[in-house]
Specification:
Length: about 300
Amino acid sequence: MSLTFDLHSHTTASDGTLSPAQLVARAHAAGVGVLAITDHDETGGVGEARAAAGPLGLHVVAGAEISVTWNGGTVHVVALNIDPEAPALAQGLAEVREFRQWRAEEMGRRLEQRGIAGAYEGARALANGRIISRTHFAHFLVQTGRSPDVRSVFKHYLKRNKPGHVPGRWAPLEAAVGWVLEAGGQAVIAHPARYDMTAARLRRLVGEFKECGGSGIEVVSGSHTPEDVRLMARLANNFGLSASAGSDFHGPENPYVELGRLPELPPECTPIWSDWSLNKAGHSCGPDPLRREQE
Ligand code: AMP
Ligand code: MN
Ligand code: MN
Ligand code: MN
């Protein structure tokens, strides 16, 4: 039987609702063999995830989902197989988190001006000392009865041009990819079909990303339709990029899809893991998954 790869997931280290150990247990139960922990701008969940994964024989890929500002909009870059301690990456992510903290306070001020008091404090309490994301604001606004669900909070308060939105000043694309490479990892454009971009602009993004040293794009994502998968497979192949697959799981409450429950990569794609070995990730935890796959 072939291994199941899920290379995009969130824990309580960012805006996920499961702890790293809980996430690993759930992934294992769902049949995932290789799980990347890709918290927003944060690698703090990886250690706990690895400790939990060892006895289960599940392979944890150290990752992050880096917030990037490109062409005035926000793009997410998934980093895989990074050394979380690599200095440029650690420093770069620390700076991104500093902006994130300022943005959360600014979001609180803007919402306050619109008559919504205590949103920053509420989001901060939900984040419980970890990074504060818009998701935490969304949960607070649902809990306080401002909106029926998270999706509608985004629609009415948190999207671009809405009262609580603060334009991003995240990492430049070239810098983010550079940090990933310096950390020994591979950079992947997250959920490319989800950006509010024309096809021409998306091609420009992918071209620049490749020039910076990017390795792949998420062809299969929990938030992609079958048509998106076909289009993104073609895009990856046109640019000579590898293909990644990840659920973008944030917790059992409202997942795009369950961990590991992803369609296969289209056969014409080159999987981003085609040349992986456990040694590349710099640690060992159980049998080499690639060898098992060949058995
Ligand atoms: P941030 O990085 O703080 O701007 O938050 C981005 C996160 O918000 C994403 O990773 C998603 O988890 C969540 N998100 C973004 N847009 C939506 C939406 N329309 N509905 C629900 N969650 C969303
Ligand atoms: Mn998120
Ligand atoms: Mn994302
Ligand atoms: Mn994500």
